[in-house]
Amino acid sequence: MNDIQRRIHLRPCLAVVAAFAFAGMANAQASATTAPAASAPITAPAELADGEVRKIDKDNAKITLKHGPLKNFDMPGMTMVFGVGEPAMLDRVQVGDKIRFAVEKVNGKLTVVRIEPQS
Ligand SMILES: [Cu+2]
Question: Which numeric CATH code is attached to 49-117?
Fold first, then answer.
């Protein structure tokens, strides 16, 4: 194969790679509703949802919340169990507390990454 033949042969492959890269960027932007550019999930500002603490499981780093709609995940309001990013977050809440919280998918699991008191 001479140089010209090699370049012609490579071009379609590069186009496919570029298309995949573009699709990946588009997906990242579609899922990050508040951040214009794709960035690490932990640092991306997540939308805060309303919730009420129903149960705290410090041993397993889990919290049961009655939550309002989670727009990021297309989820209506319900009561469900979440993992928490930091077990220490559970020290700052009590059953019955009304909170605002942020959820992100961490290793495929919905995880509460931020808890704030509801004002
Ligand atoms: Cu839910």
Answer: 2.40.50.320
